[in-house]
Specification:
Strand order of the largest sheet: 1-3-2
Largest sheet: 3 strands, antiparallel
Structural class: alpha+beta
Number of strands: 3
Number of helices: 4
Number of domains: 1
Mean pLDDT: 89
CATH class: Mainly Alpha
Low-confidence stretches: none
Radius of gyration: 16 Å
Shape: globular
CATH topology: Arc Repressor Mutant, subunit A
Helix content: 40-55%
C-alpha cells in the first residue's frame, strides 16, 4: 500500500519521504542515495532533511537522459538486458 505524502510549501526543507515521492523512489533507495551523498541533505540530530533550494538546484543540474539511456532502461524493464 503506498502512502501519499502531503508536501508543505512553507517549509525550507523536504523530508526523506517527500523527496522519495517527488523522485518516485522507495524510502530505502532515497536513504541510500542520501547516505552516499548523491542527494544533498543535512542531518539534524538523528533526522535527515533536504534543503529545498539545494535539492531543486541538484535536480536541475542532473544531465538529460540520452536516447541510449532510454533504450537501455526499456531493455532492462523488458528483460532483454540480461548479461551473458
Amino acid at each position: 500500500m503506498s502512502t501519499v505524502v502531503r508536501i508543505e510549501s512553507n517549509r525550507a526543507v523536504y523530508t526523506v519521504m517527500e523527496v522519495a515521492q517527488l523522485l518516485s523512489l522507495s524510502r530505502g533507495t532515497t536513504y541510500t542515495m542520501i547516505r552516499k551523498g548523491e542527494i544533498p541533505a543535512k542531518k539534524i540530530g538523528d533526522r535527515w532533511v533536504i534543503p529545498k533550494a539545494r535539492f531543486n538546484a541538484w535536480l536541475n543540474d542532473l544531465p538529460e537522459a540520452t536516447d541510449e539511456d532510454v533504450e537501455r532502461a526499456l531493455r532492462k524493464v523488458s528483460g532483454d538486458d540480461i548479461q551473458r
